[in-house]
């Protein structure tokens, strides 16, 4: 009966979001049959030891990198399946986790769809990275005897309140989990009001365990030559609408002070590349596309990074990074540790509520600054006029989350080590 009403609720929700879905058709084009369960993913699993890792988007996928490395050491016979919700997550998974046996899109959580998919994969364990709690997904994994674990867990204040508002649903869903491995004490306290505390453990943030791919000096020079970067360069990374517009309006003032300043813009989602290109045209900025290096002259004000998976390289050749998703209220920030991990100072906005640990670490280590749009011009002017040594490069996050996670997983995951 519960499953029936849950399916009905999903259908009603689908009708409500249909207009938004149609407006964002390009975002789902080519994957819609998989998402609707009308086309089965190409799974060639030869092992009975399958670990299924679900990560919503690129950030969660990056957090899973260190975990996957530990899993392969601990369970060498296991095969790993990665599922994502967004296209950016799927692309990141294929790039950063090529050792996975399969990379798939997670379909809609209707019972008849999930039942078929779970039987196809037959996971011995399902690890949800950070969140994305789907009832039928979890239920059918448990039904075939698999373990379900939240890893690198987090829960926003808004989600916490929603789960508390529907206690019947929450108890039914979270009772299916074997472990909740959360990032910090704040999330521990929130989950402790929703589930038995003996299931909850603090393991730290997996993102701090990811070792960046460092470029050699020659590789840095080659990339600078390709993009024709010869002067001070700033990157606006992981931006959302309307952050590009707001930040460019402020940079207009900076260009008057620093005419040779180069700005790279890397939107968070690939479906927005065209929108940002149109914005640059409308505002009469001189720009080029990173995907077309032959057209880059070196005289452009802006280079639009219209390729995914480039950030960690670009952070290593710029003077300063401004990470988006932090100047608008509904996102809550992105990974500000990534530029710091390769020695590049970072600036970010005041809305970092989903990245509190990273925010605290960066501020304490003096590796970055929290700014507002109003203070952006003054702060960047100072940073470009004087050496960036005002920042400390002694960022030392607490690592070891992957090891703690594996140690706890071995107590519940029934795989041959």
Describe the structure.
The chain has 417 residues and is α/β, with parallel strands linked by helices. It has 18 helices and 14 strands. It has helices at 2-23, 25-28, 32-35, 58-74, 87-96, 111-121, 135-143, 157-165, 167-174, 185-192, 217-227, 243-257, 273-282, 311-314, 337-341, 356-364, 376-385, 401-409, and strands at residues 50-55, 79-84, 102-105, 125-129, 147-153, 179-182, 200-202, 233-239, 262-267, 287-289, 302-304, 320-323, 346-348, 368-370. The strands form two sheets. The chain has a seven-stranded parallel β-sheet with strand order 3-2-1-4-5-6-7, sandwiched between helices. β8 (233-239), α12 and β9 (262-267) form a beta-alpha-beta unit. α4 packs parallel to α5, α4 (58-74) crosses α18 (401-409) and α12 packs across α17 (376-385). The protein is globular and about 65 Å long.
Q: Quick gist of this model?
A:
The protein has 18 helices and 14 strands. It is of the alpha/beta class and 417 residues long.
Work out the strand percent. Answer: 15-25%
What is the CA-atom radius of gyration, in angstroms?
22 Å
- N→C terminal distance: 39 Å
Structural class: alpha/beta
- Average residue pLDDT: 90
What's the total number of strands?
Answer: 14
The biggest sheet, with number of strands, parallel, antiparallel or mixed sense and barrel status, is: 7 strands, parallel
Low-confidence stretches: none
| Oligomer kind | single chain
Query: Helical element count?
Result: 18
Q: What helical percentage do the residues reach?
A: 40-55%
- Using the alpha-carbon principal axes, give the shape: globular
Strand order of the largest sheet: 3-2-1-4-5-6-7
